[in-house]
Sequence to fold (238 residues):
Amino acid sequence: MEWKSVDGVRRWFVVVALVLGPVLAVLSVVVGLGPEPESMRESFDVMATRSPQILAQDLLETAGFALVLAALIGAATALRSRGGALGLIGVVLAYAGIVGFAISNASGLGIVALAQLPDRDAAFETAVAVTSDGPLAVAQTAGMVLEIAGQLGILILILGLWRARLLPLWVLIPVVLGILVNAVVGTLLATLVADVLLLATGAWIAVRLARASHGAWLGTEVPSRRSKAATSAAATAA
Fold:
């Protein structure tokens, strides 16, 4: 893999970020693992006692998903001759996702700051008010919508890489499965499963992109898809 040119440096960033980003996402969940709160008040009280862990968790998660999305934005370089429209849509949604994760985690840290106030009861009432009908409620809703857009951007960019014949279509399966598990179950353990799936998929994509030809990476050539029959014939001839 070339690395001395601008395109080579970009590819190195993409390859590294596709692995490092999910690693940071996994670490963010590991840092936050613990007993699941059973109510909003219990969750608020946990924020008061575990603020350093929550801060670390939010920073790691934001950095991790920003790297994943940035890596796929960089990989859109390959979507010139094929998959260009998918790449454009995916890039726009990926940028929105980066903003969304930042907004969501920043608004979450605002609640953590309220949990540090000495009058815990008054602080909890304030937190409920601002998250149900206030500026933090608007920020959290906007962040959630943008996060969903970012996840959709990941899927579209993977589709674009499939269209460019750099990835097989089955790569979408673990990514979609992780998104569904995280959305439906909603626990930290489910998030950990989703992030591990993302790590495995990101590492596999990184290897494929690292091995791609320079022309395929630049989108100036389309890798051929040999049929099973052609592959068998070549093996027999050899």
Remarks:
- The radius of gyration is 21 Å.
